[in-house]
Amino acid sequence: MKDFYGTQLPNALMLGTAQYPSPAILEQAFRASGASVATVSLRRESGAGQAFWQMIRDLGVTVLPNTAGCHTVKEAVTTAQMAREVFDTKWIKLELIGHTDSLQPDVFQLVEAARILTEDGFRVFPYTTDDLIVGERLLEAGCEVLMPWGAPIGSGRGLSNTYALRAMRAAFPDVPLVIDAGIGVPSHAAQAMELGYDAVLLNTAVARAGDPVEMARAMALAIEAGQRAYQADPIEQRDMAEPSTPVIGKAFLS
Amino acid sequence: MSDWSVIGAGVAGLAVATELARRGASVTVYDKDGLPGAHACSWWAGGMLAPWCEFENAEEPVLRLGQKAIEWWADKTEVHRCGTLVVAAKRDLPDLRRFARRTEGFQDVQTEEIAYLEPDLHGFAKGLHFRQEAHLNPRKALHDLCRGLQEMGVDIRHQPAPGDLGNTVDCRGLAARDVLTDLRGVKGEMLVIRCPDVGLTRPVRLLHPRLPLYVVPRGDGVYMLGATMIESEDRTRITARSLLEMLSAAYALNPAFGEAEVLEIGVDLRPAFADNLPRIRRRGRVIYANGLYRHGYLLAPALAEGVADLALENTHSEMVDEDHT
Known about the structure:
By secondary structure, chain A is α/β, with parallel strands linked by helices.
């Protein structure tokens, strides 16, 4: 597994911490899934979320603060700086929202903010689209990880454009790639790993499931399955059947 | 007859005092801020007695224990048994389907039935009607509890609790954090508006992936809009974003809300434990009753019964998670 800014993660599930029925269930979801990274939003809790933040720290996993809900470079940079102080980490998941309805990334501001934050010493995890040129620009800006969307945040639609995601994997073979957003069910997460992605970041699919703990476990299993499958080098698809037992010597013309 | 002191005159303290007094204990209530008012987070509640709806995002005890609340309150204050209407804009119908899957005790309603139930709601093709639910006016309910306590001879003293009170129930809410260290505050923001042009008769919940809103009618064209749920402990201010989102959602329910007069803005912290369920803990002669979270009026009756069971009969309800006598 590729490392993320020099950190080797024990598994490929990055789990969000928003929208759970309670902090207790959030914690159980982390325990059940063994998720290696907890993303946490600072913006909505600005000022005084100490009790909740302490619970996140107490999960004992790597914390990846995010800039969820930021619409401008200035907001995102300020939020990142605040996150660095609160969680004592250089990691930042950079989200720059371009549109309230689709929550799609504003890639132009994203590249600019990535450059500013990288120069300031941050390790930037940019939430981006599956556009290859944007990916290149983000790498030029200093990012060493790319996090393309599978589908819009919270939509649960799975990987909308597997062609583009395959192309991205092929274009950046050495860059850690994380599918961020759009996952609805475990098969989506498995598919992301089968495409050769290095990790999956999800939140709504677990937090808003009827049983978040069981869904978290299911996601972790699917991610492991997809990862193992990718490493096992799956067969190619073909148009005709290929018999798995020899036909020579059998009366196949009967 | 046993003597009990209750600290805190919010919904928890008053309900506990009521239940103790009703079962024959001699009770005195202490609150450093006096009778219920803006200092208590129960002052800012919605007052929905909606266990079936709340079950969408809460654990099973909320559904079961919350069902006791309607009858408990009905002989103490005015309870409006009009049910709850849950609606979603067309684009958010997946949220309505999800809500329906996670809850029970509702009927599907369509355009005509929605129009019949609430003629002032327009443009909603589908909804859920939880007809067993009810609502009350929280401030009137607190007032009525105080009056009932006074009738039973319970003294409500406007003073901090003196030290060494003997048998005590601590219902201080988030202030009890000095002792209950696993308590946290969850920020809630709400508005009270006057809008006589809109005539809703029952609580209406508007589902939305980002900002679920409820509107509770308080009578005379007054409505409570609520409420945000933010993992923050800043009770000093409402953000422009929260105001904007709540008012936009109200406007989506009926554009006439755009002309409403904003009467009050409330911000407070709900006391909550990690699983967002209430707890009763006995340490020596003090019983701590806390963690009602967003279910103050819904679960205060069950909490009060649990405290009285422990205090007077030494029986342990499911809310008791610690007992060191």
